[in-house]
Amino acid sequence: MSSVVAALIISAPLLAAGPLLIALSGEVYGERGEGARTGYETVSPRVSAATYRLLGTLLTLSGAVSALAGAIWGVAVQALLLPPLLIASAVATIEYSRRLAIIEDLRHPPTGDKEEAVPTPSQAVKTFLTGAYAALIPIAILASLRLHTLGEDGIAVSLASLPALAGYTLYLTLTRPEAYAIPELGREAIRSLQVTIPLSLTLITAGVYLDIIGVQLFWPLLLVGLVLPIIPLLTFKT
Amino acid sequence: MDVADKLLRDARRGLLAVAVLEVLLDEGPLHGYGLRKSLTIRMGWEPPEASLYDALKRLEKLGLVKGRWVRAGRGPLRRVYVATEEGRRVHGKVVRLLSSIIGWLICREVGEG
Fold first, then answer.
1. Among residues B72, B77, B84, B68, which one has the least CA distance to residue B28?
2. Interface probe, candidates A94, A102, A111, chain B, greatest B C-beta count within 10 A
3. Are A88 and A171 in contact (CB under 8 A)?
4. Which residues of A touch B33 (CB under 8 A)?
């Protein structure tokens, strides 16, 4: 199989999802009443459609750029490139939808219904998560020191993508907790996911790093990391 | 856009931020819509939504205004803004400085007229 075909297969999900999202934005725009969710709970169809279009465009571009990089420099480079491209696309979309949602909010008078503050994680949880993330730094340094003896692409991808994903979800929890909103889930479950997802990814990252540097007891961390996000889904009513 | 337009645009941007602080300090927590309406009444012109968004974003980033999402009924989330203590302190300082500059400019115009 040529490197071009391999590169196209790896980027295929993005190349398919991007145009699909752009095409779907027309459907979203056509809905009346409540809009879809963009990460900021219910917003108007106009904001949803614009967000879909932007995300679709960014994913298509990310797919094309990563496929091109894969065809030229190989799939390892492509795999390293994908996480930052996806994260950049997600951050750009969330910031853009936030801007649109706030601007739209300026146009509509309040309904007069009883208001309730949208909860955000408490300071203690934020401090704990930040501490847990910072605790990874020495492990990351140790793992990096051994990188020259590890030639496998998979390890390099893990080293690059796992902390990036953990950092990204931590960024969401600390600055954009509303981004976890999922229509099918209850408030308690969403609140719990805001904490457990970054924590889970942090534990998985720590587990992988410990494995790379040769610490045998890495698997309890991986196990807890994998199970943790499931708990709120089972505990709280949807 | 010439230099004068750029200067005026910057001044308008800064003044809008001060006006937002003024309204929030005077009227207390407000929804974005209420804030826009109040600004329109007080200033005599309706600030464009994008400009108001930029002003609010800047004020929030500087810690002078705090915005939070609230849920009301089954509709979309709404955003409520409130001036912080730091906002009150900075507002007083800025208004004193602006007043002296504007007062001086008016005196000069009147003197020349």
1. B84
2. A102
3. no
4. 105-110
The domain ranges of chain A are 3-105, 123-235
Interface test with A, best of B77, B80, B81, B82 (most A CBs within 10 A): B77
User: Which residues make Cβ contacts (< 8 Å) with residue B14, sequence separation at least 6?
Assistant: none
Cα-to-chain-centroid distance, residue A85: 11
Q: Are A28 and A35 in contact (CB under 8 A)?
A: yes
A133-162 per-position pLDDT tens digit: 667 666 666 666 665 555 566 666 666 777
Task: Please name the fold of domain B3-112.
Answer: Arc Repressor Mutant, subunit A (1.10.10)
Residues sharing a CB contact under 8 Å with residue A5, sequence separation 6 or more, in sequence order: none
- Residue among B43, B61, B63, B45 nearest B53 (CA): B61
Of A44, A110, A116, the CB nearest to B31: A110
In this predicted model, what pLDDT tens digit does every residue of A88-104 receive, in sequence order? 887 888 788 778 888 88
- Break chain B into its structural domains and give their ranges: 3-112
DSSP B52: H
pLDDT in tens, B74-84: 666 788 999 99
Distance from CA of A53 to the nearest CA of B (A): 20
**Whether B33 and A42 lie within 8 Å, measured CB to CB:** no
Are B56 and A110 a contacting pair at CB < 8 A? no
